[in-house]
Write a structure and sequence with these properties.
It is a single chain. This protein folds into two domains: about 90 residues, Arc Repressor Mutant, subunit A; about 110 residues, Jelly Rolls, CATH 2.60.120. Helices cover about 35% and strands about 20% of the residues. It has seven helices and twelve strands. A hairpin with a 4-residue loop joins strand 6 and strand 7. Helix 1 crosses helix 3 and helix 2 crosses helix 3. It binds zinc ion (ZN). Zinc ion (ZN) binds next to helix 3. The site of zinc ion (ZN) has 7 residues, from helix 3.
Length: about 220
């Protein structure tokens, strides 16, 4: 697997600091399973954070032991390998941090058709105004509506490929975009493209069709 698109320094730092949401943390963990380069960067960020902590003056403790235990329980795979291996069988090509969240294999999921050539499987039931955590199943040749973002959007490629203004994204790549990016992905693989997506707010569509479709697409 050749990984061409990586996590930004800011996302790596937020991951090491434990400040990412569970959906964002899951996507980062998926990418780290296939990218030794980002794994090394995360280890460096982790060690820098640890050194800063060691050198810090004693301060008032603002995080309780219960908070730390809860955070550890939500940490990605490497923190709880035993639980993960029991919870879900390994699925070829699906990183463990994702497969542990799926009730079935990718093709057997209860996909919901939301537009021609586009199906969705939600991994969260929160209202779309708070963002999305979902899988999209996109047929070859599908062009998504042009859009931008209010803040960070992470996309991890599970299967297939797409191209947009940023470049070509293939299995293992992660698109780590902020509010400045405006893009229009086109599915350019011969097989369906399956993408894992996490956002914190609805995307901003620039075209009329996209704006009309947004309540139905849910991203
Ligand atoms: Zn990487």
């Amino acid at each position: 697997m050749t990984v061409s698109h990586h996590l930004t320094d800011i996302t790596i730092q937020d991951y090491a600091a434990g400040t990412l949401s569970m959906p964002m943390e899951t996507l980062v963990a998926c990418h780290l399973t296939v990218c030794s380069q980002c794994r090394r960067r995360a280890e460096v960020a982790d060690s820098i954070g640890g050194n800063l902590f060691d050198q810090a003056e004693p301060a008032t403790v603002t995080v309780s032991a219960a908070d730390l235990l809860a955070r550890a329980a939500m940490a990605p795979d490497h923190a709880a390998p035993q639980t993960a291996s029991v919870a879900s069988p390994a699925q070829p090509g699906v990183p463990r941090p994702l497969s542990r969240l799926l009730p079935t294999g990718l093709e057997e999921l209860d996909w919901r058709r939301i537009a021609p050539g586009i199906k969705r499987f939600n991994l969260s039931d929160q209202h779309r105004k708070y963002g999305a955590f979902q899988l999209l199943h996109l047929d070859p040749g599908v062009t998504l509506s042009a859009h931008s973002h209010n803040d960070r959007e992470l996309t991890y490629l599970v299967q297939g490929s797409y191209s947009d203004e940023v470049g070509k994204f293939q299995v293992g790549d992660i698109a780590d975009l902020d509010g400045h990016h405006h893009h229009q992905p086109v599915i350019d693989s011969e097989e369906p493209c399956i993408a894992l997506i996490a956002t914190h707010s609805p995307v901003r569509y620039s075209g009329f069709v996209g704006k009309i479709m947004q309540p139905f697409v849910g991203i």
